Amino acid sequence: MDVKGALFYIFSAVLLFAAFRVITARNPVHAALFLVLAFFQAAMVWMLLKAEFLAIVLVLVYVGAVMVLFLFVVMMLDINLDSIRQGFWRHFPLAATVGALIALEMAAVLMGGFGGGEPPRVVVMLGQAPGQFSNTRELGVLLYTQYLYPLEVASVILLVAIIAAIALTLRERKDNKALSSSEQVRVQARDRLQLLKMAATQPVAAAAQDANAAAPANTEKKA
After folding, report:
1. What gap in Å lies between CA 146 and CA 133, rounded to an integer?
2. Claim: this prediction has a pTM higher than 0.85
């Protein structure tokens, strides 16, 4: 066994352990951290398979954005663990059935899904031009030529999901304090600043009257 094979088995073992701990950890924060570890190990497996672009995207998107968001949400929420564990055994048969079905499908694909057929296009290109092959370029060409319409459909679905999330969480109240962009654009300079003319000095007679009026009030307070 060479070094690459040994690293593959090490990363795969850690990946399986982390995935198992995700579904068995009692603390949601620990489960999220184990999921981050699983994503990192999957990225290392992609690196061993010379799919650098997929590995970097997995780390940046899932670990750097999605999982960090999940982790902060889980840490900020006051989760009652006892209420979560109450329905575990009630839903366990259904979950075990679905898990077994998924495992059988994956085993069928791994055992007989990749056999026979013509060699992939990537292998042919590697044989024709070694050293000039780029995973990122080939993935981009494949996405925007052969899979252009599915990519556009997926983009529209994501856009609709974002708009739906905003529409569902938007709550307007009467006492909301918000700025109107149209009013800010229409405002003029004279509306922002107003000059008031006031006397610089006060006449002596008026000042004396104010002092006499304030004197009885001060004496009453002292008394």
Report:
1. 19
2. no
